[in-house]
Every structure is written in C-alpha cells, then in structure tokens.
C-alpha cells in the first residue's frame, strides 16, 4: 500500500486522501454547473499550459520566450472527513486538450459523463475515452427545462452503453441531484472492483 | 493576494490585455520540475518553520508556496491560490522539494485505489451532506 497515505509529518499533520472524479461531457452539458453545485468552496479555476503536449524532450531552449496559451480547468472540493476529500474536475471540452484529460484521469476514481439529450452525440467522445481506458463512469442525463424528456432506456440505446453502466437523470444545478449522481458513481466503482458497497 | 501578485508581475496588464503568454518566464524557461510526480491532488506540506532567509535565490512565489503549504495543500489548490498555471507551480515546487523545504504526499494510485471501506466512507459522507 501507499505508505504515505495516512502518515503525517513531524508535526503530526494528517495528510488526507484526495480522490479525483472527472466531470465530462460535451460543451454546454452542464459540467461547470455540476462542479459548482457540488463544491463546498466556490469553484476554483486553474490553468495548464498548452505546450505540454508538444514537449517530448528535455531540450526546452527558447521556451521561456515562446508565446503560448493556457487552458482553464474548473475544479471543486468536497470534504468527506478529516482523512478524505473528493476533487471534482470539469474536463476541458475540446479535443485538442486530450493530453490534459490523461493527466486528469491518471489515478482518478471514476467519471461522470453529462449527457444533454438535445445534443446526445456530444458526449460520445467522453464515453469512448473512459471505455477505452477502463475508467468506471456513470452517465448523468442532465434535464434541461426546454429539453424533450426521453426515457433512460432510449438514451441508453442511443449511446450504445454497456448495460452495467449506470444512468441517472439529474439536474446539474441541484446539489442533491448531483450528490445522487456521485453516489451512483462510487457504488458503480465498488461493483466494478467486485466489492459492492452495502446499501445503508 | 491575487491582485497584488498580478500587479507586481505585470503592472501593465489588466483584464482586457488578454492572457499572459510567457508563463515560463518565472521558472527561467524550465518546463519540467526537477522531480516528477506532482499529481494535481498530491498534498504539499511545508517543512515546519522553514528558514527561507537561507535561500535568497528563491522568488516571492516560492515563498508564498511555502506559506500556503504550511497547512498541507494539494498542488491544484496552490496553483489556483497563486493564480499560476499548474505547470509553473510544479517547477517551483520542484525547487522547494530539492531544498527540502516541502514534502509531497502522492495520492493513492489506481492500482491500489481505495479499498471498500474508503468507498463506503465516501458514499456515507455524500449521503450525509
């Protein structure tokens, strides 16, 4: 096991376990909204620099003068207890940011793919990404006010989802609804590992 | 803090000036930290009572990082607090790590990802929120 997990430093600081959960989906599917609704702090934003994907060698001469751009990442935090925190990361929407997804997905507990029934195809790349990497995910069907209500089964067929992948109707603006989605993800992760979480 | 930093580093930039485009100036052009493995959610913990005066070569941003890491803070929150790109913060953290001013605690890896007790604690915790 990772020996530093519960270790403190000399002052007896306890270092919590931080678990990453990705919030993915197409542009406008409600990723940032869901992170905001769930985070205990105002959603934070940080940036990653877009030179990362292209730099494969250690020869970086000239990089200091290179003009580049950055991509913003939204994230939020949920403190479960003194030893356990969840970090929610909204994934950047465009394909050219896939390298960032790899970093976000590394060691992640799992992912929520938000689907917007008006533009269902927008979440296909996210689903493909997690399927290919064996990262457990659930699909949250975000119910927008003006969207036609589809049955979950119809959406599942349209997404060609594996029957074991949970689907949850949700309202990304609503904290309780978002919590339900996260709970279904964590339960799915436990089943995925063959150790179902006992129901309370 | 955010305003203060922005002001002293880029006095002539305001919100309308567009993004800062030479983020690695602060790291002297270094784009990789001296040590790998600053996961976004790795906890950085500053050494107790660090003697920063002994390191005159460190930038104000290094010093702020040590201050913020006094209570144990994940990499991604340090970057957000300092309003610096994660890539830049990683390089600065590498400088601090090599001087023994901070310790880094990596999160558990996928291979030993949380056991069932932890997952159960997460579900219980979420239900209780």
UniProtKB/TrEMBL annotation, chain A:
GO terms for molecular function: ATP binding; GTP binding; hydrolase activity. Belongs to the GPN-loop GTPase family. SUPFAM superfamilies: P-loop containing nucleoside triphosphate hydrolases (SSF52540). The keyword Hydrolase applies. InterPro entries: Gliding_Motility_GTPase, Gpn, P-loop_NTPase. This is ATP-binding protein. The lineage of its organism: Bacteria, Bacillati, Actinomycetota, Actinomycetes, Micromonosporales. PANTHER family: ATP/GTP-BINDING PROTEIN-RELATED (PTHR42708), GLIDING MOTILITY PROTEIN MGLA (PTHR42708:SF1).
From TrEMBL, chain B:
It comes from Micromonospora sediminimaris. InterPro entries: DUF742 (IPR007995). Pfam families: DUF742. This is DUF742 domain-containing protein.
């Amino acid at each position: 096991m990772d020996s530093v997990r519960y270790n403190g430093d000399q002052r007896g600081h306890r270092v919590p376990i931080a678990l990453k959960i990705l919030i993915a989906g197409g542009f406008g599917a409600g990723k940032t909204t869901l992170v905001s609704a769930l985070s205990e702090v105002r959603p934070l934003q940080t940036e990653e620099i877009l030179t990362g994907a292209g730099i494969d060698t250690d020869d970086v001469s000239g990089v200091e003068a290179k003009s580049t751009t950055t991509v913003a990442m939204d994230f939020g935090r949920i403190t479960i207890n003194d030893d356990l925190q969840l970090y929610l990361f909204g994934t950047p929407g465009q394909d050219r940011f896939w390298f960032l997804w790899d970093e976000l997905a590394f060691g992640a507990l799992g992912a929520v793919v938000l689907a917007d029934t008006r533009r269902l195809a927008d979440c296909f790349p996210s689903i493909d990404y997690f399927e290919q990497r064996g990262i457990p995910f659930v699909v949250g069907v975000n119910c927008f006010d003006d969207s036609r209500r589809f049955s979950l089964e119809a959406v599942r067929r349209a997404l060609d989802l594996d029957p074991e992948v949970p689907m949850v109707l949700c309202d990304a603006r609503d904290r309780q609804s978002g919590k339900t989605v996260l709970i279904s993800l964590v339960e799915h992760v436990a089943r995925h590992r063959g150790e179902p979480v006992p129901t309370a | 803090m955010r305003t203060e930093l922005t002001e002293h580093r880029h006095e002539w930039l305001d919100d309308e000036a567009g993004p800062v485009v030479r983020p690695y100036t602060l790291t002297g052009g270094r784009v990789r930290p001296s040590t790998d493995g600053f996961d976004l959610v790795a906890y950085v913990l500053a050494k107790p009572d660090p003697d920063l005066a002994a390191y005159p070569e460190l930038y104000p941003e290094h010093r702020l990082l040590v201050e913020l890491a006094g209570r144990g803070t994940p990499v991604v929150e340090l970057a957000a607090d300092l309003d610096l790109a994660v890539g830049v913060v990683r390089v600065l953290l590498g400088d601090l790590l090599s001087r023994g001013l901070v310790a880094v605690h990596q999160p558990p890896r996928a291979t030993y990802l949380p056991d069932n007790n932890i997952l159960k604690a997460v579900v219980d915790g979420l239900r209780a929120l």
